[in-house]
Design brief:
single chain, 985 residues, mainly alpha, 5-stranded parallel sheet, 3-stranded antiparallel sheet, 44 helices, globular
């Protein structure tokens, strides 16, 4: 600032754009000038405004306006009233907007989009045009924008026969647009989401057959055939009772097609006009190497097979399977051929590394899910089972020319579900195994390079000038490499990076056979010999990193975890790892993440066993990794649960973990590291690391509670329990039992969870380990509560509260308090249930919890609901739902939706209850166990019954009954009662 006062800038009158007038009739009749709401006057005055707005600028005579406002019984001063209303509107809107002519009135001079009705007409027209042109995604978006213009009931609270007629017309138009949008939703595979919305709509418009038809189709495509048929039965009964008619022909035809399991119903009825499949053209091939060399005969042979498959005469799907030892160049050759053949497969190329040489090969289900998404299939349209995914995959590829590269396959069984199966498509498969049992495959055995090809590859990497003067030395190098491409590439890359070395220096290094395996052999040993060449050229620090990082079991490793293994700073670690990437001994999986080729990892471990000094350093490296994960997971736990004493009871660590600035960053770390973390847990289930491994799993409890990694978590917990038992470590076994029983509780496996928790409690008491006693008592109480053994549950919860407080763990005591609230609720003590849930929630809020406050609100919402305080209950549960979603807690998200549905039922809002229960069913798919699914189905059945869809309700209850009977759950009695009146009728 220069100290001189500033004079505010003056604007000349009229220098700004004039504010625009806007009107709405697709809701309350309103007017705005810019952002300012204008007075629209009395209901009759607004009725006059609406009548003029809906005439699209045409003049309305005084007689027409009187008829619009009052019909056949106008007041004696009707004409004077019309003139008064018009005069008031002219003052508000301006004389250039409301004009008088020919004894009547009109609204003119409106800008573009000034009236929501006009804008809706324009958008609907554009949507219709987009659909006719086959642009279904754009048509759906346009219809969504159109429907968003409605703001409640059209012409709300406007009197008169004209308004009544227009209101009915506008509502019918809205329903037609909604049906069109839902129809397109189903065409694009969004049937799972559509079920919830259609359930609510059929409840609101029970006689609208088109909505029923769409609901039947959505249910059928979601694998719920019985419910789809029940919708037809409900509709037929309703139409007969209310109108004395049968369902229309389209609905009857759909019923028959469902009964016959018509394949045409399993996918959109008009896929040729659907642009969602065609525009998605995957191009997933990895980059081909610029120095690809030789293999001319193989390239020609494979290219001819692919060309024949894609030609007009091609009548079968082609499969070529390349087999050979690791490092022989199978992937390089396959990628090169695939790139050369791209033009023959204009609809795309898919690629996946099947990790077949490792201990955990890729599951075909997961690969098919990724392929379907790459081909444009919505997540919600992807079925669960391998057979269904494989069938849908083949259907999506039908009529398209797509090349699929299946790299590093384990065996033919892994490959078969991933083959396209239709003419015009082709698959390239690479594997260490010869796939003689892959029917119809063109088998190719890939051997090592010829000496000429090997020398060409070496020359391309090192440079012609350096090789030309030392040709004999170069031949010695490639011979020492066993002519394996990977070995040649490693050696040549090291030489290219060291300008002071000559080829003879490299040849002399490789000539010492003591630096390699004594003799080249078939199979893995030959591959190890190749890796020995690159390993022998590493600097000491690089070699140490290579050896130690290969010890970790996870599929990849983060930079921070690698730094812990190596006991180095992140900067030094990154320099080492990037230098290893340069030598091709390590791969960069993503920014900040690294992985080994599966065979390189095995070689690195053999080097560690042979070379690492002192030998205890191997165990120390894995111990540092375990410490890193434990310290970081404990930090995530503490950040989410301030004041919780669990972190004070964990085993001490010598390696520091990461610190996070906020909850989101901590959650991102936990879920991104879930697989390597659980692999570390299982790898550490022995000796001096066992107790820390158990504590790591305990601190990472959110991986089980969220449902994201529940199965893997449960398996790791069982392995730790067994290891502790085998080691006769009472304290460790008690803690592992608590972790395992807690995981089983979240999975709904109550009987086993109860046995594990009882044993854990006995062991914790015997080893004087107080915190596991608290947790075990709370878990036992929860299981007893779910099994309706209320007296036992109350005793366990009371004990848990007392013992948590005895440990000074106020945060821990809030959980059994909330659980006790639910027990009081179930035993008819609603008032005390509200108090207990409020106490638990208050503890969480005081300590600054976020997720646990949501758990408290969940319990409080349930208690308030049963106390008939439905509005308060809904507020608590909706806030809990928001936090669960933000925290990626799918299990709790699904259960919160189910509890909202229960409150809606108590509040006599069955349509909304059905919508929430449907969403709960979708969210809980694959997590939470069958018992919780039975709960949701029971609530959904009650909701459907409340909106008159008794057939669907019966289907839901029968499925729930089957679940409960299989589990021998007491809830079966309630469901039988629900079905009894139906059976009696």
């Amino acid at each position: 600032m220069d100290g001189v006062p500033r004079v505010p800038e003056q604007r000349r009158p009229g220098s700004e754009e004039p504010a625009a007038l806007r009107f709405s009739v697709l809701g309350p009749v309103r007017a705005w000038l810019g952002a300012e709401a204008l007075p629209a006057g009395s209901p009759q005055q607004r009725a006059l405004l609406a009548a003029l707005l809906l005439r699209d600028g045409r003049t309305a005579t005084a007689a027409e306006l009187i008829d619009a406002l009052w019909g056949d019984e106008p007041p004696s001063q009707a004409l004077a009233a019309v003139r008064t209303y018009a005069s008031r509107l002219r003052k508000a809107l301006g004389p250039e907007v409301l004009v008088s002519e020919s004894g009547g009135y009109a609204i003119r001079s409106l800008g573009e989009g000034a009236l929501d009705h006009t804008r809706a007409q324009e958008l609907a027209g554009l949507a219709e045009k987009a659909r006719a042109e086959g642009d279904l995604p754009r048509a759906r978006d346009l219809l969504r924008d159109t429907l968003a213009l409605w703001d409640g009931e059209p012409l709300a609270s406007i009197p008169g026969p004209y308004a009544e007629t227009q209101r009915a017309r506008l509502e019918e138009w809205r329903l037609q647009l909604l049906e069109s949008r839902l129809d397109m939703d189903l065409e694009q595979g969004a049937h799972a989401e559509a079920v919830s919305e259609l359930t609510a709509l059929t409840a609101a418009h029970p006689l609208r057959e088109r909505l029923r038809e769409l609901l039947m189709l959505a249910l059928y495509r979601s694998g719920r055939q019985a419910e789809a048929l029940a919708v037809f039965a409900d509709t037929r009964r309703l139409l007969a009772d209310e109108l004395g008619v049968d369902p229309r022909a389209g609905l009857r035809e759909l019923q028959q097609r469902i009964l016959q399991a018509d394949p045409g119903l399993a996918e959109p009825s008009a896929p040729a006009a659907e642009p969602a499949a065609a525009p998605v053209r995957p191009a997933q091939l990895p980059a081909t190497v610029t120095d690809f060399t030789g293999r001319a005969a193989f390239v020609r042979e494979l290219s001819d097979v692919l060309a024949a498959a894609s030609s007009e005469e091609g009548r079968v799907m082609a499969v070529s399977a390349l087999a050979g030892i690791g490092g022989v160049g199978k992937t390089t050759l396959a990628v090169h051929v695939a790139h050369q053949s791209r033009g023959a497969f204009p609809d795309g190329q898919l690629y996946v590394d099947l990790q077949g040489a490792g201990s955990r090969a890729a599951e075909p289900e997961a690969v098919l899910g990724a392929f379907l998404r790459a081909l444009g299939t919505a997540d919600t349209a992807i079925p669960d089972s391998l057979e269904e995914r494989s069938a849908l995959y083949r259907s999506v590829l039908d009529g398209r020319r797509v090349l699929v590269l299946l790299d590093n396959a384990r065996d033919a069984a892994q490959v078969r579900p991933l083959l396209p199966g239709t003419e015009g498509c082709a698959a390239l498969v690479t594997s260490r195994m010869r796939m003689v049992d892959l029917a119809g495959a063109h088998l190719v055995d890939l051997d090592v390079m010829s000496p000429e090809e090997a020398l060409q590859l070496f020359t391309k990497i090192v440079g012609r000038e350096r090789v030309a003067s030392e040709r004999e030395a170069a031949l010695d190098v490639v011979a020492a490499c066993g002519f394996l491409p990977l070995a040649i590439r490693i050696a040549a890359s090291r030489l290219a990076a060291r300008r002071t070395w000559t080829v003879s220096v490299l040849a002399a290094k490789l000539g010492d056979e003591r630096r390699r395996l004594d003799e080249l052999q078939a199979g893995d040993l030959a591959v190890k010999a190749t890796f020995e060449l690159g390993y022998g050229q590493l600097e000491p620090a690089q070699a140490r990193a290579f050896r130690l990082l290969g010890l970790a079991d996870g599929p990849d490793i983060s930079l921070a975890a690698a730094a812990a293994v190596l006991d180095l700073t992140a900067e030094d670690t990154e320099d080492l790892l990037e230098s290893l990437v340069d030598t091709s001994l390590l791969e960069s999986a993503a920014p900040g993440r690294y992985r080994y080729h599966d065979l390189v990892r095995l070689y690195a471990r053999s080097c560690a066993e042979r070379d690492e000094q002192p030998p205890t350093e191997r165990a120390a490296a894995l111990s540092r990794l375990l410490d890193f994960y434990l310290a970081t997971a404990a930090g995530v736990y503490a950040l989410e649960r301030p004041g919780d004493r669990l972190v004070d009871h964990l085993e001490p660590t010598r390696t520091e973990g990461l610190a996070f600035a906020d909850r989101k960053a901590s959650w991102d770390w936990l879920y991104s590291e879930a697989v390597p973390l659980l692999a570390c847990v299982r790898q550490s289930a022995t000796g001096p690391t066992l107790r820390r491994a158990i504590d790591l799993l305990w601190a990472a409890v959110d991986l089980a509670e969220s449902g994201a990694n529940s199965k893997e978590y449960e398996a790791a917990a069982a392995a730790l329990r067994d290891a502790a038992r085998g080691a006769s470590d009472t304290r460790a076994e008690g803690r592992a039992g608590v972790v395992l029983s807690n995981a089983l509780l979240f999975s709904g496996v109550f009987d086993q969870a109860y046995r594990e928790a009882q044993q854990a409690l006995r062991l914790a008491e015997a080893s004087d380990d107080p915190l596991p006693c608290c947790w075990a008592a709370n878990i036992l109480g929860s299981i007893a509560f779910y099994q309706k053994r209320y007296a036992d549950a109350e005793g366990y919860f009371s004990r848990a509260i007392e013992e948590f407080r005895g440990c000074g763990d106020l945060a821990g005591s809030a959980s059994p308090l909330c659980n006790l609230s639910r027990l009081h609720l179930a035993t008819g003590r609603a008032d005390s249930a509200v108090v207990l849930a409020g106490q638990g929630t208050e503890i969480y809020e005081t300590l600054g919890h976020t997720l646990r406050v949501a758990n408290g609100r969940y319990a409080l919402g349930m208690a308030l609901g049963k106390s008939s305080r439905h509005s308060d209950a809904t507020s608590e549960l909706e806030e809990a739902l928001r936090v669960f979603r933000d925290s990626r807690q799918r299990l709790w998200e699904g259960m919160a939706l189910c509890r909202l549905a229960e409150v809606d039922l108590d509040a006599r809002k069955p349509a909304r209850a059905a919508s929430n229960a449907e969403m709960a069913l979708t969210v809980l798919r694959g997590i939470g166990g069958e018992w919780r699914r039975g709960n949701v189905l029971t609530v959904l059945g009650k909701s459907l019954s409340g909106i008159g869809q008794s057939g669907r309700a019966q289907v839901c209850w029968r499925e729930a009954l089957e679940i409960y009977e299989t589990l021998d759950s007491p809830e079966a009695a309630e469901v039988r009662t629900l079905l009894t009146p139906v059976a009696a009728a």
